[in-house]
């Protein structure tokens, strides 16, 4: 909805987060208000605050591993781009493939395997930092 109104992605994410906090804080009180049969104890506003606090703590703990993996990938990608190794390898693949796309694909796969062997434990350097957690 916010992107349809041509707001920036950052502003859309901000308002999405604000609405999520609002829903977390008001979900339990609204359930207890709307279900007046007495058999359901859904909680109060303070239970929503506790849920929000626990969710923020769990999210921060889960992001530590992803942040470290992303930083490591950034270091490797930065080193490849700053030294010019990426351009040299691209020129080498283009030269050896002689314009053949299938051969270019195979050479790229081979070079990816070789670069992955040098970067253990994550087998593919910057493909999926979220998958690096074990």
UniProtKB/TrEMBL annotation:
InterPro entries: DctM
Keywords per UniProt: Membrane, Transmembrane, Transmembrane helix
A Pfam family it matches: DctM
Sequence ranges assigned to domain TRAP C4-dicarboxylate transport system permease DctM subunit in this UniProt record: 51-116
Chain segments annotated as transmembrane: 6-26, 63-81, 101-119
Protein name, per record: TRAP-type transport system permease
